[in-house]
Amino acid sequence: MGGSSKVLGLTAADQASLLRLAILGLISVVAIGSRLYSVIRFESVIHEFDPWFNYRTTQYLVKNGFDKFWNWFDETAWYPLGRVVGGTLYPGIMVTSAAIYNALHLVNVPVDIRNVCVFLAPVFSALTAVATYQLGKEVKSATAGLLAAAFIGIAPGYISRSVAGSYDNEGIAIFLLVLTFFLWLRAVRLGSALYGALTATAYFYMVSAWGGYVFIINLIPLHVFALLAMGRYSNRLYVAYSTFYALGTLASMQIPFVGFQPTFTSEHMAALGTFGLIQLVAFAQFLRGLMPARHFQVVVRGALVGLFAAGAGALVVLTMRGVIAPWTGRFYSLWDTGYAKIHIPIIASVSEHQPTPWTNFFFDLNLLMVLLPAGIYFSFRELTDNHVFLILYSLFAAYFASVMVRLILTLTPIVCVMAGIAMANALEAYLDFRSSSNNDGGGSGDAAQPADTQNSSSTEPSGAKRMHGWLGRTVVVVNLMYFLWMFQFHCSWITSSAYSSPSVVLASRGPDGSQHIIDDFREAYYWLRKNTRADARVLSWWDYGYQLAGMADRPTLVDNNTWNNTHIATVGKIMASDENTAYELARRHDVDYVLVVFGAMLGYSGDDINKFLWMIRIAQGVYPDDVSEQAFFTAGGEYAIDDSASAAMRASLMHKLSYYRFNEVMGQHGFDRVRRQQLPTKVELSNFAEAYTTENWMVRIYKVKELDNLGRRHRAAMAFDGGS
């Protein structure tokens, strides 16, 4: 390449760099744009449930400053217990949004904090694409990096938690996950303490953002252990891991919600044990030069066996004595999929904690699932230290994603990288037409190929050589382009149809194709905000706690934090009890209003009647003498809501609050469109008064009646007698 190859004074290498930069920029634009369907179709609004807590706490941080935020005790949550907010959350996403908000205002860009929160995840998706490019480039080539970046930019498995309005921890955590792994592999390759420190910094940011940091602090030690077991110890590995672990652990302990957990919880013990092991291996390498080889082998083997036995024994003893905390139920459920349903029903009740159907993999990953095994194959062919990491990441992420739907999110980045490696190898082989012309002319093949590849190609039969000619290559490339085009079409359709509807605003289409907006949730929350006292306590199932606090601004008994199983079970017991018992319990807990979600009119299957069995199971776990799941089934073992329903079901507060007056709308022989059953003929209420029902009957709010004078005197007398 001479001077004639220059364009605008740029060499060929500069042109290639500029082209890669332009492509990466376009990928970033597509990554952001593909996540804006919800804003375009509806409006700039926060989605789902957990994001409303994040949004509310971000508002508090921006308004009151970091010190008050860090020490905030929220008296309106978990009434009457309250919540120490600063010490029970991962503050990364709130601090990031507040920093962006303050930076924009510093340069006189007037933007509302709501819009910062709504668009945060799409912006970070562009950064994730850049980090994925760097990771792909680190392990393979720039071509693999660009392909991996393009894949993760539009893959539904990542888009599902990063659309505009999805203001959840994962919105920034996946970027930090990929960034941490890229910096780690760079640190191992270079043996750089600087990159080890940068890895620790990215890890600290990850710890501040999401509980999924546990995946990092187990996968990196696993990578180190695998390299040691393969006999690949090096000073580079020692410097990288020692720097990362020491700085990363100290930094992570600065997050109050994490605290000293890295020193006494089981999920952190692998990292600690690997740190100790690599110190021993380094010391053994030091001893190698000080004694004869025969003596060295005996000493090392004895020391390793003894220390391993001592370490394992100490781990068992400390765990049994309670010094090291055992695995939590959430982690046990990753190894035993039936554990949560039996022991912790509140975890099993969450749909995203269920095992993953096979269809979900192809729904969220599509073509990438086919390319994943090919990427693993190419990684095995080279098997550098970096490729060992990719293989471990692929295998463990695939397992965890199969046992919990939510964890497809952590699988998506490595699938994109592996798919980028596989596609890059295919394109590099089939787009180089120089080798095909050499083969046609009897040449020895592509000089850029490895020697073993050249030797194997030289012994191929003539038919294979002809298939590797320009026609065969063209057919293969055209097919690859077709599959890529179909992949982007699939991603766009899935994103548009499945992941771009905010849960607080629903949409349906009539027979004529016209769209009908269902805004019952915000309607109900707005009514509560405008028509109830500021300190009015609202009882609902925990699913709606964050939305109630964020949109209605009213105290709640339980919310999505689910930290107190007994309190949640109490709410379940109230819903499962007969009206008089439920009234007594509601008054005892100072409840002013009860909110239920009811989808029988529209056919909304996510309503409280469908969730009712989980409320019963959770309540039964804490109050087995008062609540029995079997009592809510018919004699034939069916879950019915009509006149054939069990006596416990028809008497329960949940049943009455849901179907009260519904016959007036649907008629005496009306039909529940979710359960596909006829409505109960008569439902009466005496202790709860209907306060508000939304337009489509999706949200129903009831006021807990005040005690009359006779009731007050009677209760006062009972209290006096009991006290005396």
From TrEMBL:
It is a multi-pass membrane protein. Residues 19-419 form the Oligosaccharyl transferase STT3 N-terminal domain. One of its GO terms (cellular component) is endomembrane system. Residues 451-461 have a biased composition (Polar residues). One of its GO terms (biological process) is post-translational protein modification. Residues 441-465 are annotated as: Disordered. Pathway: Protein modification; protein glycosylation. GO terms for molecular function: dolichyl-diphosphooligosaccharide-protein glycotransferase activity; metal ion binding. Pfam families: STT3, STT3-PglB_core. It is found in: Endomembrane system. Keywords: Glycosyltransferase, Magnesium, Manganese, Membrane, Metal-binding, Transferase, Transmembrane, Transmembrane helix. It is an enzyme of class 2 (transferase). InterPro entries: Oligo_trans_STT3 (IPR003674), STT3-PglB_core (IPR048999), STT3_N (IPR048307). Its EC number is 2.4.99.18. Residues 537-594 form the STT3/PglB/AglB core domain. The chain crosses the membrane at residues 21-40, 84-104, 116-136, 142-160, 172-198, 210-230, 237-257, 269-287, 299-324, 361-380, 387-405. Its cofactor is Mn(2+); Mg(2+). It catalyses: a di-trans,poly-cis-dolichyl diphosphooligosaccharide + L-asparaginyl-[protein] = N(4)-(oligosaccharide-(1->4)-N-acetyl-beta-D-glucosaminyl-(1->4)-N-acetyl-beta-D-glucosaminyl)-L-asparaginyl-[protein] + a di-trans,poly-cis-dolichyl diphosphate + H(+). Belongs to the STT3 family. This is dolichyl-diphosphooligosaccharide--protein glycotransferase. It comes from Coemansia javaensis. The gene is STT3.
